[in-house]
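#lab-general

N.A. 3:47 PM
ok so I finally got the sequence cleaned up, no stray characters, all 371 residues accounted for. can someone with queue access submit it? mine expired

B.Y. 3:52 PM
send it over

N.A. 3:53 PM
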Amino acid sequence: MRFELSEDQQEIQGAARELLAARSTFARVREVAEREEAAPTGMPDLSAVTTTREDEALWKELGELGWTGIAVPEEHGGQGLGVIELAAITEELGYAVAPVPFLGSVAAALVVQHEGSEEQREDWLPHLAAGGLRGAVTLTGDRAPVPGAAEGGLTVVADAAANGPAALYGPGSGVVEEVDAIDPTRGHGRVAIDALDPEGELDGRGEWLGGTPTATGPGLDRATIVVAAELVGVAQRALDMTVAYVKERRQFGVPVGSFQAVQHGAAQMLRDVTMARSLTYHAAWMADAGDPAQLPVAAAMAKAAASDAGRAVTAAAVQLHGGIGFTWEADVHWLLKRAQVDAALLGGGGHHRRRVAAAQAAGGSGSGSGA
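B.Y. 4:20 PM
back already:
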């Protein structure tokens, strides 16, 4: 069992951070977000409004570099690497608050790869791996905005109940409603499907994942781990920015970071990030090389810790930036907004703690991806 990346995996992550430091600066994130913010307010310069909340050039570049297919098997057009490498890159995309639909697309690819039929893999994985098709994953009954969900993309809807089935909805299925989310740096949709009836039909709009209404599991668990990885990156960036700020900002002739209350706050942030990262790396290792029976609990523990850390650390970052932290001009709010959406995606901390508790009550290994 490893709780840190290997040398090769560190090189992949380092290369990702270097590229994103140049391509996804806060200035670029702000440019994308403010460009899209013009739409709902009815600003007079409508020529500046576009129809997407994404950095199209960066998304295209990531597809050309193979990032979108890093965990997709080579026979389906991907790089054939594992969840660990995918999580390492996703963490960096969270660190950079990159305005691209990466998270939803790779999550959908994981679910299709591990739970879809061979025909569904052949139909969807090459397009998701190339970045030409956007994807999204959500749970039934979840009214929260879903990153990457678009009417022109592939949407995976999994039953939120224990051992429930999942369905695929292709482009133009009519199940996605575009919505404005608290995070304006990427597109979101809402999928209004309250339940999937294994005995019923899918209204001709979708198809059962795997061809039949069977219980979801390993694919959805892997998707959950990737969401946790992005939250780790978001929280780490919030911690780094806060530590740098409290070292620079002075009051009463000394850096505010010298005050014990500030130090305690930063220490708590570090503890939260470290715990979330350790559990996420462990879950990713479990997905690639561990006992499959332990994967549901590992994934649930990672997402629970990452959801809690994402929300707590980014909120503390805003607080420790003082009055400036609450302003639009301070970049720290991009992190808080991204964390709020990711923390709810595929279930929040409470949802996944109930999964762990249910698994322990049932014998310790976990029996499914639902609560």
